[in-house]
């Protein structure tokens, strides 16, 4: 990218199922400024060029995970992606793959969240009247620290070649969530959680390709979580504890 | 048309708390403009206050000390009975979250660790590294799944149905399809957050517009103390993303261009951990008097904490500084400036969340109970959401029970309100000038410049004139895009409509209040004036602008005294 460039082109996927027969690409010129993120570029287009462009946004600071999309060939958060760092004159922006398109860059995340709900992602305990917190050492807490950081943006799922071809695969995000509970010293439902993660569409489908690790904006390592669960499952099987 | 006994609007911490609690008694549905996990609560970093006395330095802490710190922090404008409820119920609320799986950071003994926070006498703030909001959001969303609460995302409320002097439901826009629909309910809980986007510089998410608060206002519900806006001392220069108070709680310094720890001049004892209003004004004074960098910011220096401690305690801050500011916080100071952070005022409610309109409740940042008064302490906002969200949920469930036909008797009126909404959508799809984005930008600039950290009568009058001009331009303006399916421009125009109302209320309250108290600072009235102004502002809608009244501050055991840190 030439140093003196003060504009870039956003090549944006457009599709309105109500009136378009098929999707098309539309190019917009976006003025560069220091620190410009892809999300801010899209907001500039929305406010000053084309009010019909649809995309999702909320926190703009990489803490909510709403603006996951395909940017320059990689699943990324639009708010966390600096335009200058892409070093391209033309930036291709498309919706996350594998999900129904509502309009333009907006996809229906329900199938993604349905997989998450499949692993029953919740504690089964309640507060006990008159009792304080349950105890957990800093070391025990460290075992899940990385995995609680997942905010379910869906980037890892979009980057996973297995999830792309096998629509039933639980996928890295749901499996990380399953492991978050297993790794928690307070949970105590490891067998039941492993059983949910194991099934035909579960963790054995992971081919350790590591794409999920590369795209995670939170530094979470889904592959590691999946391998840990595989190890646990094998040892339990050998010890005769569970039958998948 | 749909019907639910209890309808919760907003999927952040207050809304989820309310929905979970109400669901133990009645069927509940929750509408949210974004998926609940994208709510602004997610961005809360520092922590949640409860006098647990878990750490050695906090052994003599108790709920009364928590309540006193909150009252003093509020510059004595908080209602003390509400503060007492919050401080008393805090431990129970935190234990509940922990038992539901919230991964709080731990002390060596395995109990919940507690860190020092601004304006607090003891380390009282429970936290999950610097991602407390994220951790609590996921915990409560998980429990909402467990309790099988109906959640509808991508719905935006556009009006409140009032019949027989009571809230009977809402009309909402299905953003995905662009269709309007009526939701009848025996009780509606607004839990829709603050209005940070009234300001150009704000730490708030792009969705924090306060638009539903404005709907309540238009429905005749008074808003309380809206002139009290919190400016956070440390937002990242440029994007104004929040840099947690936890960074100072962990020992970070504030430095000006001359390398001075300038807080010494403003709060000799508390230094960087003075309450937010004081630190924000101190930073702005340094910048205004030429001791900032590039006339825009000061430095937050964490280097002496060491990389290991920074990464252990403040991983999110480290990431934000590096990713959005291009700064490695372990080797360079972070450039920070004050930015709008919190809306202390809101829908006037009692301690069970009930607003003046029967059947309408509010909780969290959109409500004003009031526990924050003129200035909120860090760690009290998350607490407010879970304590008062829970209480509002319980009250709403009680109100909903035994109403018989209740709201369902008003199907015809609901249909009429949907038709009104359709007419309104048609009206802004006309041929007028396409000015909505410009109007929003001009409003936000006027609010930051003239209704910001430092206020004067003259500036406030100018802001009022500007807001009036913007309202007229808004009335004449139209959308560029009239398609209904996921029309973001339409959503933003509806938000702007509400924001212009709220901006007017903030400016009017700030102009009337001829004193300085907490987050409201008048350069032409620099002292607190308890004689005239130890009272709440109540603003009610009229077509000619807000009508202001006042109500008494409820004092229980603490008489106002000078606020020194």
Can you walk me through this structure?
- The complex is a heterodimer of chains A (244) and B (565).
- By secondary structure, chain A is an alpha+beta fold.
- Chain A has ten helices and seven strands.
- In chain A, strand 6 and strand 7 form a beta hairpin.
- In chain A, helix 3 packs parallel to helix 7 (171-182), helix 7 packs antiparallel against helix 8 and helix 7 crosses helix 10.
- In chain B, helix 3 packs across helix 10, helix 8 (307-313) crosses helix 9 and helix 12 runs parallel beside helix 14.
- Chain B contains 15 helices and 19 strands.
- Chain B has helices at 13-22, 63-73, 80-99, 132-146, 211-218, 246-249, 276-288, 307-313, 315-325, 380-400, 411-427, 436-450, 457-476, 488-512, 530-533; strands spanning 2-9, 28-32, 48-49, 114-115, 125-126, 150-153, 155-163, 166-174, 179-190, 223-224, 229-236, 253-255, 298-301, 334-343, 346-348, 360-362, 367-368, 535-540, 547-552.
- Chain B has three domains: 2-41 and 73-104 and 129-229 and 342-413, 3-Layer(bba) Sandwich (FAD/NAD(P)-binding domain); 234-338, Alpha-Beta Complex (Flavocytochrome C3, Chain A, domain 1); 424-552, Up-down Bundle (Methane Monooxygenase Hydroxylase, Chain G, domain 1).
- In chain B, the strands form four sheets. In chain B, strands 1, 2, 6, 7, 8, 9 and 16 form a seven-stranded mixed beta sheet that branches.
- Classes of the chains: A alpha+beta (244), B alpha/beta (565).
Topology of helices and strands:
The complex is a heterodimer of chains A (244) and B (565).
Chain A lengths: L6 E8 L9 E8 L6 H11 L19 E4 L2 E4 L5 H4 L3 E5 L6 E3 L2 E2 L2 H9 L19 H11 L6 H5 L1 H5 L5 H12 L7 H9 L12 H5 L6 H17 L6
Parallel strand pairs in A: 1-5
Antiparallel strand pairs in A: 1-2, 3-4, 3-5, 6-7
Chain B lengths: L1 E8 L3 H10 L5 E5 L15 E2 L13 H11 L6 H20 L14 E2 L9 E2 L5 H15 L3 E4 L1 E9 L2 E9 L4 E12 L20 H8 L4 E2 L4 E8 L9 H4 L3 E3 L20 H13 L9 E4 L5 H7 L1 H11 L8 E10 L2 E3 L11 E3 L4 E2 L11 H21 L10 H17 L8 H15 L6 H20 L11 H25 L17 H4 L1 E6 L6 E6 L13
Parallel strand pairs in B: 1-2, 1-9, 2-6, 9-16, 15-17
Antiparallel strand pairs in B: 3-5, 4-5, 7-8, 8-9, 10-15, 10-18, 11-14, 12-13, 13-14, 18-19
Helix pairs in contact in B: 1-4, 1-10, 2-3, 3-10, 5-14, 8-9, 12-13, 12-14, 13-14
């Amino acid at each position: 990218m030439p140093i003196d460039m003060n504009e870039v082109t956003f090549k944006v996927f457009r599709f309105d199922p109500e009136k378009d027969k098929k999707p098309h690409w539309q190019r917009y010129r976006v003025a560069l400024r220091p620190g410009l993120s892809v999300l801010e570029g899209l907001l500039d287009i929305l406010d000053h060029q084309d009010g019909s462009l649809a995309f999702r946004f909320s926190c703009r600071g990489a803490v909510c995970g709403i603006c996951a999309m395909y940017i320059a060939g990689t699943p990324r958060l639009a708010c966390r992606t600096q335009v200058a760092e892409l070093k391209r004159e033309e930036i291709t922006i498309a919706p996350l793959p594998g999900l129904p398109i509502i309009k333009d860059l907006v996809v229906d995340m329900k199938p993604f969240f349905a997989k998450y709900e499949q692993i029953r992602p919740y504690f089964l305990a309640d507060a006990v009247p008159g009792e304080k917190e349950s105890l957990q050492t800093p070391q025990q807490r460290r075992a899940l620290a990385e995995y609680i950081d997942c905010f379910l943006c869906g980037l890892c799922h979009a980057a996973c070649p297995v999830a792309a071809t096998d629509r039933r695969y639980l996928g890295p995000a749901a499996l990380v969530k399953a492991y978050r509970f297993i790794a928690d010293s307070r949970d105590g439902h490891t067998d039941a959680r492993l059983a949910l993660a194991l099934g035909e569409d579960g963790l054995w489908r992971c081919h350790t390709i590591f794409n999920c690790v590369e795209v995670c904006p939170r530094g979470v390592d889904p592959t590691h979580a999946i391998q840990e669960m595989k190890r646990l499952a094998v040892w339990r099987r050998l010890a005769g504890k569970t039958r998948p | 048309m749909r019907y639910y006994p209890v309808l919760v609007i907003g999927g952040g911490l207050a809304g989820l708390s309310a929905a979970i609690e109400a669901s133990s008694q009645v069927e509940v549905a929750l509408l949210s403009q974004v998926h609940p996990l994208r709510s602004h609560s997610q961005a809360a970093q520092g922590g949640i206050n409860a006098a647990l006395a878990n750490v050695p330095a906090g052994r003599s802490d108790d709920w009364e000390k928590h309540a006193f710190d909150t009252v003093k922090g509020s510059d004595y404008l908080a209602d003390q009975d509400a503060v007492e409820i919050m401080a008393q119920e805090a431990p129970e609320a935190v234990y509940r979250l922990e038992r539901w799986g919230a991964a709080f950071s731990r002390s060596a003994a395995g109990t919940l660790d507690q860190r020092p926070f601004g304006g607090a006498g003891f380390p009282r703030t429970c936290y999950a590294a610097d991602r407390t909001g994220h951790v609590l959001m996921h915990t409560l969303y998980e429990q909402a799944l467990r309790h099988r609460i109906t959640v509808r995302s991508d719905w935006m409320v556009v009006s409140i149905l009032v019949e027989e002097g009571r809230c009977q439901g809402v009309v909402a826009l299905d953003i995905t399809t662009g269709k309007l629909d009526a939701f009848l309910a025996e009780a509606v809980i607004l839990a829709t957050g603050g209005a940070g986007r009234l300001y150009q510089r704000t730490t708030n998410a792009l969705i924090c517009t306060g638009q539903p608060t404005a709907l309540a206002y238009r429905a005749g519900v008074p808003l309380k103390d809206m002139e009290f806006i919190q400016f956070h001392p440390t937002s990242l220069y440029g994007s104004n993303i929040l840099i947690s108070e936890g960074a100072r709680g962990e020992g970070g310094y504030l430095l000006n261009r001359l390398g001075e720890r300038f807080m010494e001049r403003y709060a000799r004892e508390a230094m960087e951990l003075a309450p937010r209003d004081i630190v924000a004004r101190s930073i702005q004074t340094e910048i205004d008097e030429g001791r900032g960098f590039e006339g825009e910011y000061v430095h937050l220096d964490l280097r002496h904490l060491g990389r290991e401690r920074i990464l252990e305690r403040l991983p999110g801050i480290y990431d934000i500084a590096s990713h959005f500011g291009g700064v490695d916080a372990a080797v360079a100071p972070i450039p920070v400036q004050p930015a709008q952070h919190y809306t202390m005022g809101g829908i006037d409610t009692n301690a069970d969340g009930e607003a003046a309109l029967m059947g309408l409740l509010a909780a969290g940042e959109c409500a004003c109970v009031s526990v924050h008064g003129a200035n909120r302490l860090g760690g009290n906002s998350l607490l407010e959401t879970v304590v008062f969200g829970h209480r509002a949920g319980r009250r709403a469930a009680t109100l909903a029970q035994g109403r018989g036909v209740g709201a369902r008797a008003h199907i015809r009126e609901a249909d009429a309100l949907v038709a009104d909404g359709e007419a309104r959508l048609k009206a802004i799809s006309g041929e007028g000038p396409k000015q909505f984005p410009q109007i929003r930008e001009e409003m936000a600039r006027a609010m930051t410049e003239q209704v910001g950290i430092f206020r004067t009568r003259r500036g406030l009058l100018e802001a009022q004139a500007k807001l009036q001009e913007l309202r007229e331009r808004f009335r004449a303006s139209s959308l560029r895009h009239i398609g209904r399916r996921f029309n973001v421009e339409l959503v933003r125009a509806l938000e702007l409509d509400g924001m212009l109302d709220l901006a007017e209320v903030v400016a009017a309250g700030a102009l009337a209040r001829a004193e300085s108290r907490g987050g409201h600072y008048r350069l032409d009235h620099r002292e607190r004036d308890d004689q005239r102004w130890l009272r709440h502002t109540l603003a009610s809608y009229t077509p000619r602008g807000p009508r202001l009244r006042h109500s008494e501050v409820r004092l229980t055991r603490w008489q106002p005294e000078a606020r020194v840190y």
